[in-house]
Amino acid sequence: IYGGLRMTGRINKWDIGILDMQTASFYENPSENFGIFRTKRSVFNPNSYIGGMVTSRLGLNGSYNAAYGLDGQFRVTGDEFMTVKWAQTFEKDSVNKIFDSAPSRFLFEWQRRKIKGFAYDFVYTYSGKSFNPGVGFEVKDNYQGVKTILQYGWLPERETFLRYHTISLTAYDFWNTLTGLHETTNGILKWSFEAKK
């Protein structure tokens, strides 16, 4: 790594973050420049925001990988939150079309965020067959799926060393976006607690 630059701050109502780094060539890997720009701002209420992000990975051999992302989190009412995320990547030697689903990643989430009482989290996520973030990584490629968390939390009524308890049921189901074949199903029933110390 030759060096880099990082800057964070605020311009009017927008939070801004910039990161750039230059690397040397290493065996078959060319010298590359990595760049990230992130911005977001509050909208509607203090618990809601919209944002965007751009990343680039440019090689001195002419290779490139670029991506953009748009996201938003919205407190709809009370403890109800909605999150929406969209990202798309572009690469050398690939067909690059705006809003094409193949090199894209999408997430929709609806949550009730509560420590005490009933809460839930419903997620749909999609990762296209050619989505490839050159800066960062994906744990799983080429998939779509749903995830659900149902939980109930409570505070102990009498004096105890525990602060609160939660019982939750988590289930998710994923399948391959290219073949349509089912890949993974999982369910977890869990009790967790947090101590005062």
Question: How would the blueprint of this fold be written?
Answer:
Layout: E1 3-11, E2 14-22, E3 32-43, E4 45-59, E5 64-77, E6 80-91, E7 104-112, E8 117-127, E9 143-154, E10 162-176, E11 182-195
Antiparallel strand pairs: 1-2, 2-3, 3-4, 4-5, 5-6, 6-7, 7-8, 8-9, 9-10, 10-11
What does it look like?
- The protein has about 200 residues and is mainly β.
- It has no helices and 11 strands.
- The protein has an 11-stranded antiparallel β-sheet with strand order 1-2-3-4-5-6-7-8-9-10-11, with no helix packed on it.
- The chain starts with a strand and ends with a strand.
- The mean pLDDT is about 90.
Largest sheet: 11 strands, antiparallel
**Strand order in the largest sheet:** 1-2-3-4-5-6-7-8-9-10-11
| Helix/strand order | EEEEEEEEEEE
Q: Rg from C-alpha positions? A: 21 Å
Mean pLDDT: 92
Which term fits the overall shape? globular
Structural class: mainly beta
Task: Give the count of helical stretches.
Answer: 0
What amount of the residues lies in strands?
Answer: over 45%
State the separation between the terminal residues, measured CA to CA: 42 Å
Helix content: under 10%
Secondary structure: number of strands? 11
Low-confidence stretches: none
